[in-house]
Amino acid sequence: MIKLTDFRTELVPALDSLLSMKLRQDIKEPALQAAMTYSVMAGGKRVRPLLLLAVVQTFQASLIPQSLPAAAAIELIHTYSLIHDDLPAMDNDDLRRGQATNHKKFGEALAILAGDGLQPLAFQWLSDLRFADTVKIKLIRELALGAGPLNMVAGQVADMQGEHKALSLAELKALHRCKTGALLKASLLMGAVICELDSKRTAALSDFADHLGLAFQIKDDILDVTSTAAELGKPVHQDQAANKNTYPGLLGLDGAQTALTTELTAARRALDPLVASTDISLLAAFLTELAN
Amino acid sequence: MIKLTDFRTELVPALDSLLSMKLRQDIKEPALQAAMTYSVMAGGKRVRPLLLLAVVQTFQASLIPQSLPAAAAIELIHTYSLIHDDLPAMDNDDLRRGQATNHKKFGEALAILAGDGLQPLAFQWLSDLRFADTVKIKLIRELALGAGPLNMVAGQVADMQGEHKALSLAELKALHRCKTGALLKASLLMGAVICELDSKRTAALSDFADHLGLAFQIKDDILDVTSTAAELGKPVHQDQAANKNTYPGLLGLDGAQTALTTELTAARRALDPLVASTDISLLAAFLTELAN
C-alpha cells in the first residue's frame, strides 16, 4: 500500500488543480470568483478529501480519478464553514492559514456570499459526477446530512453557545462529534459509497470515523495551547481567550493527551474487522500522524 | 383547470404543515431549530413552491403529493437567502414579512448559522424524495445551479456592488435574472423534471420563466415605491435610500409599468407552443396577479 506522505504528494496537487479549474469554470462574477477562490485555494491540508480518497485507494484504487471531484466537493463545504466561522459575528478571526481571513480581505458581505456560493456548488459537483445515479444520490445525502442542521451546523451552534457555560466531557464530545467529526465521517463514508462497500465494512469505517474525528479535534485543541502562531498560521491561545470549551481546558494538557491516545487506539481497533481481507495501512497512517 | 386562488388555498396549508413537520424532525439543537423554523414559517407567499406545483398540476396532477417535499426544499433555499440578505453586513433590515428579521430576533451568529443550515437541508430533502434517482439528480442539479454562484449568489453580489454605481438597463436585467429570476426559473424547471416533460415543452417553460422572473422583480421594485410599510410588512422606499438600482429608478414609475406589461405579455406568449395540447390557465394566472 502507498505511504500516506506519497499519497498526499501525489493527490493534493491533483485536487488543487481540479479545484482551481472547476472554480474558474463555475463562477463568472469576478468579485465572487476572487473571494471564493481565495479561501478554497488558501492551502489547506485537504484532510477531508484525502480521507475519501484513502478509502477509495484502500478498497478500489481504480476509482481514484473519478473520485477526485467528489473529494473536491467536500473541500468546498469545509471552506464555506471556515469563512463563516471566521466572521466578526462568529469567531472574529483575522488570520487563517497564515493569510487574512476572507472578510478581512473582501469585506463581510462578500465573505458571507462566498460561503453561501460554496454550498450549492458542492452539490452541483456531486450531481455531475460520472457515477451511477444511485451512487450520486447516496453521496449527496451523506454530505447534506453531515454538513446540515443535525450535524456540522448544530455543532457550530453548540460551540458558540458553550462559550457562555462550562460543558461536561460528554457534552464536549457531542459538540465535537457534530462540529468537526460529522464532515470527517461523511468524507470516509462517501468513500465507502463510491466503493459500494457492504454494511459490515461500512460499519467498521463509521466506527473508525467517530474516533478519528474526536482525535482530530483533541489534537487541534492541544495545538492551540502548545504551538506558536507561526507554526499554526493563525493566532494561538484563542480558545481560552474566547472561553471555548476544550479538552485541555477540561482535562488539563496531560489529560487531553491521554484522551487523544485513547481515541487513536479505539480508531485503530475499529479497523480490526477489515484486516483479514484488506491492507489498512493507509487509513492507519492518519492515526500515526495525529499521534505525533 | 383549478383557479389559482383555490390552488393556493389548498396547497399553501399543506406546504406549511409539511415544512413545519420536517423541520421538527430534521433539526434537534433547540436554538437552531427555533431560528430556522422562525424564518421558514414566517408566512411567506410560497411563490416558488407554488410555481413548481402549478407545473405539476398542469402536466401531471397525480404527482402533486410526492412533489410537495420538492417544493418545500425550494422554500428552504429562498428563506436562507432572505435571512442572509437581511444581515447587517448586507441590507441591514430590521423587518421582514411584518416581523423582526432573524438576526434581530436571534442575534447575528445564529442568523448566519440558520441560513447555513437551510442550504444542505434542501438537498437532503431532495435526495430523500420518492422519485427515481435519475429524476432526483436532475432536481438537485437544477436547484444547485439556480441557487449557486453562477446565478442567485452572483445576483446578490452584483446587487451589492451596484449600490456604488448606476447600472444600464441591460445590466439591471442581467442582475435581476440572477438575483430573483434564477430561483423562480429553477422552481418551474423542477416541475418540468418531475413531469419528465420533453425538450420542447421544457423550453417553453424556460422562456416563460425568464419573463415571469423579470416581471416579478419589476413588480417588487414598483411596490417598494408605491406601497405603505403596513401593506408590505417591511419598510418601503428602501431601494432609493440604499442607492439600489431599480426599474422605477432607471425608467420612472410609468416606464417601469410599461416594462412590467412588456414582460407579462412576453411570458404569456412563451406559453403559446403549449396551448394546443395543454390547459395553461393556472400558469397564466400568475401573470394576471402580477398585472394587478
UniProtKB/TrEMBL annotation, chains A, B:
One of its GO terms (cellular component) is cytoplasm. Its cofactor is Mg(2+). GO terms for molecular function: (2E,6E)-farnesyl diphosphate synthase activity; metal ion binding. It catalyses: isopentenyl diphosphate + (2E)-geranyl diphosphate = (2E,6E)-farnesyl diphosphate + diphosphate. One of its GO terms (biological process) is terpenoid biosynthetic process. Its EC number is 2.5.1.10. CDD domains: Trans_IPPS_HT (cd00685). Keywords: Isoprene biosynthesis, Magnesium, Metal-binding, Transferase. PANTHER family: FARNESYL DIPHOSPHATE SYNTHASE. Belongs to the FPP/GGPP synthase family. This is Farnesyl diphosphate synthase.
